[in-house]
Every structure is written in C-alpha cells, then in structure tokens.
C-alpha cells in the first residue's frame, strides 16, 4: 500500500456518503498530510478547510500525538473493555470530566459520534426505567439536526436525505430548525428566534412529558450548514426540559474540544445539558474515539437502582470502548490543546474568520452566511433546480485551486484548523469568492 491508486482498484470500495459512480470517474485521492495541508496524488498541496471532517483542529501529523500513540502501541496495544480495564481509561475520564461544566463528570467511552449519540439515547431511556418511569421512551430532535448514522441518531436527526431510505426508526418527533427569514447574514448568534424553543411546549402537550425521555440538539448545528442558536434559545430549551422532567442531550460531536473557542458549547453558552455527546476533536481525528459525558445524578441513578453489586448497571458498551491507543491519542490531544493555548488562539482568530467569511456577502448566488467560533456555512442559490449542484461545483473548483471544502445540501461549510494563520484564511476566502462567482 503506497498511497497511489490504479484504475483496476476502483471496484470493491463502497464509499460512505459519496456519489460513488461520479467519484470513481475522477477520484480525488489524498496521499499524505501535514499541518493544515493534504498532499494529493498529483503532488499538490491542498489546504484543509474543514480540518478533515471537523476532526483535526490541531492540524495533521502532530509529532507529539504521534509519539504518544506509538509509545502506547509498544506498551499496551489492546485490553478488554468489559469487566477488566487499564489506568489510561480512568485517567482520561478524569481529565475530560475536569474540562466540562460543573456536574458533567461521568464519562462513557465510544468509538465515534454515531455511537456516542445512540449511547446517549439508550442511557436516557434506561435512566427513566431505573427511576420507575418506563413510559418515557420518546425523543425530540430537530429538523436539520444531524446525529450520526445509527438507527437512533437517524431517527432523531432531521436531514431528509439521510432518513428517507430507511423508513420509521425509533419513536421521535422534531422541533423546527432555527433558520429564520430575516436572520440572513447575521454574524455569530442570530438575535431573533428564541421563541422557537416554545415549540417544545407544543410537543410536550401533544405527546405528554410522561412519554418523553429526552430532547437532543446540536448547540451549533454543523452538518446542516452551521446554524448557531438564536440568543436565548438554548436557555429556553433547558428551562422547558427541566420543568417537565425531560433530559436534555447536547450533541457536541463537532462543538466540543475547541471549535467554539471552549472545551464545550455548554461552557460557551452557559447552558448545561444532562448528557453531552462528543467525538472527532477528542483525538484530533487520528484514532476513532467518542465520549458520552453525563451528570453524576444519572450515573448515580444507575448505581443505586440496579440491585446487587455484581449486576451490570448499564448493559451497553463496545469492544473498543476506551482502547488504550485511543486514550493515548486523546490524552496527547488534550495536552497539545493546553500547551498551544488553543482556546485563546481560536477566540483570537474567530473575529477575523468571521469578517473574512462575511466579506462574501454580495457575491452572486450567496443567499446567507452564518458563523460561530471557527465554523461557517455559506448557503447558495440552487442551480439546475438542485440544491447540491452549486456547492458541488464550487467544491470541485476549489479542489482544482488547491483547497478542500465540504459541501452538503445547499451550503459550503468551513471549519479551518485551530492552528491556521490569518493569511491562510484570506487565501481560502479569496479563492472561494472566485469559485462562487464562476459557479
Ligand atoms: N453528531 C454530530 C453533531 C455530528 O456532526 C456527527 C458527524 N458529523 C455525528 C454525530 C456522527 O459522528 P460520526 O461520523 O463520528 O459517527
């Protein structure tokens, strides 16, 4: 395996979330990566404007993280995760808990964002059963929400294309999304829209709180094109959940560990969920790992209501939960976040990123621009009556220019690495402006 692809090798690989037939006609192949850049199979440097898939904020090929992983591989490569363990898992859980808002201090390890979401959903139902409220099984998600691809996550998710092939999943209903007419081109948090949280009262009236286990939302929705919450919205959702005895889950798979300029969006917005899901940036994207962080009251409920000490309180977990190598990657990532003063860097760079991205306002086809932290979404006019066509064309033109940008629905998404420079942001946005104009 030398990183190059020959045409006789195109058949077997069924690519995820990819237009396979189109891709295989002209593959876009990455061969190596360092810092903020990939190299492609033609030897070109490609700027990574989404930090992988919102994963590699510290850049690629970080020597300190690589060394920690190699050391771990040579010490303890794998240990069973059920009924036996290793100190790295305990150390990492303590470290993560110490970085989260008060009371979010129990950590359950998974391997990715989708597993974190389904773990959180199961945890919520089981929690109510342990409390003797077995009827609380329904979930409330949000239109345009993305919560991964497993059955639970797809059911609470609200992106039509990801749902429509699979039929009815688990019992869920959905709040409206927060993209409001009149809020276009607002920088940071939209001022209008907190009232949309009141819809939760309508859904509670419809289904009754005695049947609802949890509400799940992304504080800043990512995959639908970066939707920051309207001012006051999260607070209102929190208030309604608390009042009605419904758990609140924040899906922070994109938000946590730096993207918002904080260890969590919960911290940034000062709204604490009962359960938080994380993944991606936890290991800088290098080794798959996720973590579900719950309030101690939830953990305590499992411990106190499961009978004998020998009983498994939460019959759930993965072969690779807290694999030692993933723990080493996460620990080293958190070291690097601290050592490089990443939160300060992100907070310092965010205003410049915001100005730069919003300079695209006024270009043809640009219908809206949204941003928070180092995340931005640019919504584009449909082309050939297809929402995805123009973002796709723009992404292809950017690839030709030496930039990887992500497209989804009618938006182009940016999530530049935390370590990027103002100059690189400038080059990216200039190139993007040209590609938009020519689309
Ligand atoms: N939740 C959110 C908010 C996400 O953004 C994602 C991935 N983009 C997921 C869940 C799923 O994560 P994964 O692809 O690691 O399963």
UniProtKB/TrEMBL annotation:
Gene Ontology molecular-function annotations: transaminase activity
Keywords, alphabetical: Aminotransferase, Pyridoxal phosphate, Transferase
Pfam families associated with the record: Aminotran_3
Transport found in the keyword field: no
Record's keyword annotation contains Ligase: no
InterPro entries: Aminotrans_3, Aminotrans_3_PPA_site, PyrdxlP-dep_Trfase, PyrdxlP-dep_Trfase_major, PyrdxlP-dep_Trfase_small
Gene3D superfamilies the UniProt entry points to: Aspartate Aminotransferase, domain 1, Type I PLP-dependent aspartate aminotransferase-like (Major domain)
Cofactor(s) listed: pyridoxal 5'-phosphate
PANTHER family per record: ADENOSYLMETHIONINE-8-AMINO-7-OXONONANOATE AMINOTRANSFERASE, BETA-ALANINE--PYRUVATE AMINOTRANSFERASE
Family affiliation: Belongs to the class-III pyridoxal-phosphate-dependent aminotransferase family.
Name the UniProt record assigns to this protein: Aspartate aminotransferase family protein
Native source organism of the sequence: Photobacterium atrarenae
Upper lineage: Bacteria, Pseudomonadati, Pseudomonadota, Gammaproteobacteria, Vibrionales
